[in-house]
Amino acid sequence: MAQYLFVVAQDKPDLCDYLRGWFSGIPTVRVMLDRRQAERRRRAEANEPGRRRVDRRTQKEIEAEIRQTGFAIIGNSSS
After folding, report:
1. Is 62 helix (H, G, I), strand (E, B) or coil?
2. What is the DSSP letter of 44?
3. Which residues are paired to 4 by β-bridges?
4. What pTM value is reported for the model?
5. With contact defined as beta carbons under 8 Å apart, do 2 and 31 qualify?
6. For the chain, how long is the longest CA-to-CA vector?
7. Whose CA is closest to 34, among 74, 1, 3, 2?
8. Ranges of each domain in the chain
9. Element holding 8 (H helix, E strand)
10. Which CA distances in Å does 36 have to 6, 16, 24, 40, 64?
11. How far apart are CA 39 and CA 33, in angstroms?
12. 12-61 pLDDT, tens per residue?
């Protein structure tokens, strides 16, 4: 299972290809284009506490990083 996920901006497919080549053969890294089309709808009820295995950065933080650098690195802290 990948421990690091590189999410690359949709308008940067060349960067995605470059990173895929750079990290090829490294099973702990996965590189993919951002597939999101629009903001997801939020459910009326909140997520149950403890539902997620690890704390995650907010969607807005990840989106800002993708806009600024062209990609975001999302790490999995669980082993």
Report:
1. helix
2. S
3. 29, 75
4. 0.70
5. no
6. 42
7. 74
8. 4-37+52-75
9. strand 4-8
10. 14, 15, 24, 8, 14
11. 16
12. 999 999 999 999 999 999 999 999 876 555 555 555 555 554 446 788 89
